[in-house]
Amino acid sequence: MLNGLNVLRSVSIHDMTFDKDKWTVQLTPLLTLFSQVSKDISASLPKGDLEDTADSMLSFIQQGIFSAQSTLQALSTTFSGLQSVLHGKGLLTPDIFRQGTCVIKGEVPKEWLFFWEGPEQPMKWLLAFSQKACSLAGWLSKTKSQSLLSQPVNLQHIFHSEIFLNCLRQMTARKLQVSMDNLEMQASFDKSSLKSEMSLCIQGLYLQGSGCKAGVITDSEEGQSEYIQVQEIYLAWTVVSQLQIQSSQNS
């Protein structure tokens, strides 16, 4: 599938007039990929309405499922329109022409980015979107069973990891009965060094432009890849000391 990127990116910006035969050749790899992606996501995402819950983590996962379903529907409309035009059964509207032109040039249409930015190339975007969307059911199950934080998680499997980490911050504040503003994030390869009742084990992280030996960040070595995967790391929101608060206020 990714080899189709070479076809998509081979078109000059000056060749953006509609030619059904050329568009068919150039868009077929993406249309084929979306057909499979759509089936995979539809089979994986839970059905039904969102539950009314005060659990911030559960609410986050449920909202992710709802947004993924809405995005998939929008993508289906786009690809259905393109398919109809290529088969001579639909009108080439300005919107269909613009989105078709975008993907032929190897760019992600702006409509796709409303929910999640993701990779800059359409095929890679769809593959990443599918991976994350298909992972949400597992995250929902673990959240409902309160087992999500008891095992390593991969932030590449969810949309908007920054919101996920903020949910953990909110959960920690409630458990410790402190203000969220009095919490700071700490990270360590050694879980015991984190002074928190709620820590999270993260896997699948990569370092760029540096090395890592025995849990210590080092300079990159000659011939080393730009990105290297690091061992599991632990994150936790910990209470800021009163001394740190005063120092911050005085600075």
Range of helix content: 40-55%
* Average pLDDT: 84
Helix and strand content put the structural class at alpha+beta
Total discrete domains: 2
- The stretches of 5 or more residues where confidence is low (pLDDT under 50) are 4-15
Strand ordering within the main sheet: 1-3-8-2
How would you characterize the largest beta sheet?
4 strands, mixed
Percent in strands: 5-15%
* SS element count, helices: 7
Order of helices and strands: HHHHHEHEEEEEEEH
Categorize the overall geometry: globular
* End-to-end CA span: 54 Å
Number of strands: 8
Descriptive report:
By secondary structure, the protein is of the alpha+beta class. The chain folds into two domains: 147 residues, no CATH class; 92 residues, Hypothetical upf0131 protein ytfp (Roll), CATH 3.10.490. It is built from seven helices and eight strands. The strands form three sheets. It has a four-stranded mixed beta sheet. It is globular and about 65 Å long. It starts with a helix and ends with a helix. About 5% of the residues have low confidence.
Q: Helix and strand layout, with pairings?
A:
Layout (H helix, E strand, L loop, with lengths): L3 H5 L11 H25 L11 H31 L7 H11 L17 H23 L8 E2 L6 H16 L6 E6 L10 E5 L2 E3 L1 E4 L2 E4 L7 E3 L3 E7 L2 H9 L1
Parallel strand pairs: 1-3
Antiparallel strand pairs: 2-8, 3-8, 4-7, 5-6
Helix pairs in contact: 2-3, 2-5, 3-5
Q: Could you name the key traits of this structure?
A:
alpha+beta; 2 domains; four-stranded mixed β-sheet; two-stranded antiparallel sheet; 7 helices; 48% helix; globular
Summary?
This protein is of the alpha+beta class. Helices cover 48% and strands 14% of the residues.
